[in-house]
Hints:
The structure is a single chain. The chain is mainly alpha-helical. The protein is about 45% helix and about 0% strand. It has 6 helices and no strands. Residues about 1-15, about 20-30 and about 130-144 have low confidence and may be disordered.
Amino acid sequence: MIDSIGPGLSASFLTNSAASISSASAKATASGQQTGETPAQAGLGDLTAADWKLVSAAAGKNVGPDASGHIGPVPLLAAAIQLERQGGNLSAGQELTVGDLQQMGANQPAKGYVEQINNAISYLEENAQTSVGSSAGRAVNFAA
Length: 144
């Protein structure tokens, strides 16, 4: 379980914490099987149903809770969303926006993570019912 943190996460903290969260599912990740854990047991209890849909879309496969409540291999994006919620950057139940995802990607520009961010942005764009005042070209290359 992650301790509650404040805003302004460092890249190393995010990476280390995300690795800590997902370490419980390392064996499942390698085999592609469910972890046998619930989101709460894996330290991901603050993720909403919408978060799991977004993370699954970003990963290209369902990683959210199955019918028994267990989760699949945990992508880094799920851990990052959990940290954002625990740190108070995202309120409980608040849906992620393109801007939220862009900020998360800017804070942690690791290649695989940015790919998940860009996939999540595409998912939000494709599923948006209205687009009021949103920026064009949301997928961003965060590499320095």
